[in-house]
Write a structure and sequence with these properties.
Distance between the termini of chain B: 19 Å
Strand content of chain A: over 45%
Number of helices of chain A: 4
CATH class of the largest domain in chain B: Alpha Beta
Shape of chain A: globular
CATH superfamily of the largest domain in chain B: OmpA-like domain
Number of helices of chain B: 6
Structural class of chain B: alpha+beta
CATH architecture of the largest domain in chain A: 6 Propeller
Number of domains of chain A: 2
Number of strands of chain A: 33
Oligomer: heterodimer
Low-confidence stretches of chain A: 1-18
CATH superfamily of the largest domain in chain A: TolB, C-terminal domain
Largest sheet of chain B: 4 strands, mixed
Strand order of the largest sheet of chain B: 1-4-2-3
Helix content of chain A: under 10%
Largest interface: A-B, 38 and 25 residues
CATH topology of the largest domain in chain B: 60s Ribosomal Protein L30, Chain: A
Amino acid sequence: MKYLLLILFWPLSWQPAANAELTIEITEGVEGALPIAVVPFRWQGKTQTSPREDVSAIIQADLHRSGRFKTLPRNDMLAKPASGDEVEFKDWRVLGVENLVVGQIQPNGSKGFIIRFQLFDVFRGEQLTGYSIPTTAGSLRTTAHHIADLIYEQLIGVPGAFATRVAYITSKTEGGNTQVDLRIADADGYSPETIVSSDVPLMSPAWSPDGRKIAYASSEKGSWGIYIQEVYTGRRQKVTAFKGINSAPAWSPDGRKLAMTLSKDGNPDIFVFDMTTRKLRPITRHYAIDTEPSWSPDGRHLVFTSDRGGKPQIYRVPSFGGKAERVTFQNAYNARASYSPDGKLLTLVTREDGRYRIAVLDLASGVMQVLSRGDLDESPSFAPNGSMIIYATKAGRRSVLAAVSVDGRVRQKLALQEGDVREPVWSPLQKN
Amino acid sequence: MFTIMTRWVPVTLCLLIFAGCSSSPTKEGEQEGAEVTEQSTGGSGTYEGTEGAGATTSAASEAGSWSGDPLDDPYSLLATRILYFDFDQSSIGMDNREIIRAHAEYLASNPHVSVRLEGHADERGTREYNLGLGERRANAVRSLLMAEGVADNQIIVISYGEERPASMMNNEESWALNRRVELVY
């Protein structure tokens, strides 16, 4: 059995990439964003052991980037309180600040820290929430994102998605050789890591529901196969290697099945592979191109793209197979749909006046709203809290990423310093 | 083995008479090399060996006097290895049909030779749909080859969708170059 495992799994090299960070720039925010001040957290230990990350700056940047907060610059602060008893609310009322975050960091053992923070309603002079969180030097950024999530949820009413990650494909062509990488970065673009590096096409990364594995399609050795890779060990397994296309993997919400596109029977059809029983169930059988399956959050349906009506449109089918019904009727080209976390919306690529754009379709009303403004936008992916959609777009000849809030009011651009970046997929919410 | 030997005879003769002469079609930028001599004297010559050899000359390429592998003949329809397609289409036009027929004829009479059909799409539309579209184009070529007598096991089909563009620009000319099936021998 050990021998078999060695054949099935082999580690891939991990390459720390210098200057490979995604820079995120907010291009449009919400008018009337909530004014908030995040006071620098006070270090309570010896100078030489102070934490290397500026935790409150990370929290402030997260809140600002969401487009829903107007953050007060540090230089404008009249005081730098570190706990509730030091806060003079009038200092903040005069600045028009509605909410205030203060905190302190204490050493905890040789390498640990305890971060305490409090969130106040400035006008009522009341504490809204407060936490004391133990962490480690290596987890400071993540803890800062978790704090930003708690503040966001308290003030906006939905969980934040700052402590999440984004997987994406990068490609760089030099001297006729193209290198394609699969990378993972924090949702703020920091800490990028390359988990697959290839000189052949690689596409369609998909996170497992627990955020610990990524499935993708790769054309190694001249044929397509679907691979599953463990994010934190680098070990991977080839799941399918049928003749033709093996692509578009999509995890079922319970993580036990993988929907996929296979063309082994002559043309692309949707299949569901049960990873426990190792059985493959055909879901569609049509001479058209059926591809890009995506699960409903309750696991009962799959939506997919099919050109069985002449042009690509979105169809829905029970996830155990059955009759497919057409879902999209507006515009001649609709493809790559996926559900919002609450199952009420689909995000998809639609063609309007020859331009490929990201849209959301309200499944109850059938109303479709176009959110993006590019000519060649593709690969939309919902944030796990349903607030934003990340997608790929063009900036000149380069491929970059962009994000837009579901209401279209907040816009961000995410770019690499060099090379192309595409196919972004937002990770599930991290379980604490 | 016999066919390979006969194929090499004219090359060797040619080398004996004119040191710089070559019967192989030369690609732009290729350098003259000693590979031809090595290949012919070694007796284990392969097609790949000739491609990187020879000087640029037109003397040996007189129309009708081709004596090498038909695949090497720059004036043959077989020299066309890329077939282009219309936007979102996999149908094959009359000009492409003639080219495919020539390849089919060659493959049918050389059953030990196989061809790889690589299907591609332009960047418009989604990546996975384009992967399907590239395969549909390659399969359209495959069907025509098989209708002309090429065996199934001589053909390998792979789609690269929009993942391997021939041209990197985002304009109509570039897209037209990217909607293609490449025949790779």
